[in-house]
Amino acid sequence: MPEVRTQPSIRRDFVEWHRGRQPYVFWALDVDVPAVADDVARHARLLGDALLEGYCRQPHVTLDVCGFPSRRPLYDDEFGPALLARQLAALRLARPEPFSIEIGEADSFLSAPYLTVRDTEGGIGVLRRCLAIDGAHRLFGDYVPHVTIGLYARSLPFSEVRARLLAGRCDGLVFPVARLSLMGYAPAEIGGRLDRLADYELASGDWRWRDAAPLDALDFLRAGAPES
Q1: CA distance 196 to 192
Q2: For residue 170, which of 46, 75, 135, 193 sits 20 to 30 Å off, Cα-Cα?
Q3: 3-state secondary structure of 133
Q4: Is residue 113 classed exposed, middle or buried when 0-12, 13-18 and 19+ CB atoms within 10 A define those classes?
Q5: CA torsion sign, 149 to 155 to 158 to 160?
Q6: Whole-angstrom distance, CA of residue 168 vs CA of residue 40
Q7: What architecture is the 22-224 domain classified under in CATH?
Q8: Are 96 and 172 in contact (CB under 8 A)?
Q9: What is the pTM of this model?
Q10: Nearest-5° angle of CA 133, CA 134, CA 139?
Q11: How do residues 25-38 score in pLDDT, each as one tens digit?
Q12: Where are the chain's structural domains?
């Protein structure tokens, strides 16, 4: 059998995907605290030049995607105020409570190494059910909660990079989740920084838009999903 190898990413503008649309928007847990960021950085150093340079996304756990915001969605990867309003209504109806997750050892997909995330109290599952539309998620493929370390730059034996990751010390971290966030990024920037667009507070059910730069272009979303 041929040896399994990592799948490299390339740094270019995938204009055929985004077609000038931005930002790309998704739901996530913001886990950008020093302990997690340090673990991500330490494992990135273990992999060295196996990773694509310039990856600078803050630590986060993706829950589901929304897509490209549009006043009149025409394509499957676009969404409008109705989707966001429906998801917020589901959250407020379910009233999910704060919970904890465990962020642990490193592992890897073929395209990216990551820190494992264990949904020990089932909170991630509850949130994803609220975000699903008619029981379906817009995030394709099997869902594995994780914190991405980076993207591979070269095709390397998968066993080699996995061995490097497993050599890293990992004490594990219990992370308290008090909110979920709507995030976005510029799709022309591979691995570019994230903007936290809005937050939903689990304890109170409050929804707040943040003063992030892309919000000027998202006024129509704000009108459809007003602040609490």
Answers
A1: 13
A2: 193
A3: strand
A4: buried
A5: negative
A6: 11
A7: Alpha-Beta Complex (3.90)
A8: no
A9: 0.93
A10: 45
A11: 999 999 999 999 99
A12: 22-224
